[in-house]
Amino acid sequence: MANLFDLTGKTAIVTGSSRGIGKAIAYRLAEHGANVVISSRKADACEAAAAEINDKVGRKAAFVAPANIAVKEALQQLVNETERAFGKIDVLVCNAASNPYFGPMGNMSDEQFNKILQNNIVSNHWLINMVAPQMRERKDGAIIIISSIGGLRGTEVLGAYAISKAADMQLARNLAAEFGPDNVRVNTIAPGLIRTDFARALWENPDILKRSTERTPLRRIGEPDEISGMAVFLASRAGAFTTGQTFVIDGGQTSV
Length: 256
Description:
45% helix
């Protein structure tokens, strides 16, 4: 019987994949047979992540193409390099994001607000529209945006970030409607609090950590690899009838 989760012969770009959730997703995609393009701003971090993934899967599955998501030309170069190397892009995971501010929205500078909206929404829009045409032409493709449960609720300290993540959910719904007739699926994953460097300000603060976990049914925060399984599902034939959805992975936090 064919494996519904087999990604052999597929090529995936994963942004922000030198660490954290992005790296975990890239590893699991490679483990299931895909070639993965590791991309973040720092080339040395990308090289280290790719070497680690290749060592784990026992083949050269991970390739490096550094890019700054804030620079449109850099994203186009990422796409061009991937297409030159592999001929096509089957899976796009928009994971890279920014949050330069922690606190009430009234104290945030315009520059900080604009950076969050640019990197977390506009850059995804750019990259998706660079990749989608060849997916639509081939009548096959999976696009995954990593959002956050912050996009589903209010917050006292991460307001602009939460707004950007809510926008990502709507971006996926809109693009699912646009791309669906060409068999290109667009979904979001909304993690809860995950033990990453990006979220360190939350889980290293004992008071915030306690508030985040004491009413969460599983009574703990998540690990990066606990997000990757959903990405494999959405990228594979197992998720072939799934589009326009947001999948919450938060230990049950938003259920209570």
